[in-house]
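Our consortium's second objective concerns turning raw sequence data into structural hypotheses that experimental partners can test. To show how far this objective has progressed, the report includes one record in full. It was chosen at random from the queue rather than selected for favorable results. The single chain below, 310 residues long, was entered without modification.
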Amino acid sequence: MPNFTDVTEFILLGLTSRQEFQVLFFVVFLVVYMITLLGNVGMVILISISPQLQSPMYFFLSHLSFVDVWFSSNVTPKMLENLLSETKTISYVGCLVQCYFFIALVHVEVYILAVMAFDRYMAICNPLLYGSKMSRAVCVRLISVPYVYGFSVSLICTLWTYGLHFCGNFEINHFYCADPPLIKIACGGVHIKEYTMIVIAGINFTYSLCVVLISYTLIVVTVLRMRSADGRRKAFSTCGSHLTAVTMFYGTLIFMYLRRPTEESVEQGKMVVVFYTTVIPMLNPMIYSLRNKDVKEAINKAIAKANLGQ
């Protein structure tokens, strides 16, 4: 029988063990984190104060930005702390809390992306019914589902993480408490956690991705039937930003979670996680603002209004 050990804290090995890179990584990720906060909080405020950004698409975008702020904030501050700390530890309770919010926010984000794809389908394929079918009450109900479902599923997944047992090895080969490296060092409760992680991730990513793919398949069919070249170009331009965000997010998540945890996959996963916990939340506001005429006009009006106020 394994000699199970009570756990009070874990040691996070971080991105690298090379001391000469610690300060450099701290500066880089601090800058990225600040840009992420400013960009996403700015997007939420801009959408809330701009009359031209009161459509369902921007309502959902504001929630995507809101989730990105918490998604990045769940991981980055602890990573920054450990980059400059001699004792790179996290308490057992803190580890479970970080796991809980990480899994919850991942599920919330993938389903918000699916809801945004459905919204684009309604706007392009059913423009005459769009205003009545996508009312504010409907939008609130649609956006509530990802939050309720994501935090409920995460509770179940975290209870399975709580069921893992450890036998003296408390070093997590990562910069945050993630399921794959925790499974790698556990000596009990591993099989149920490993297979439920893959099954739940597979079901949710597949279902939400199917909503995205079906929505965009119908959009492409509708757009190709349009006689106006300007209409086709405008329809595709409203979808380009969302497709870019979907491709980046789903691609990294599939690479991370739909594989069995091995030493090699955990090591590769570090770089992937850096991308979707820090880089993608930073890029999303840029993607949606630089490629969106309405957002750029709202930014210019907000700047002009601020200058007049001075």
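The partners drew two points from this record. The chain has one domain: 9-291. The first helix runs from residue 22 to 49. Both points have been shared with the crystallography group to help prioritize constructs.
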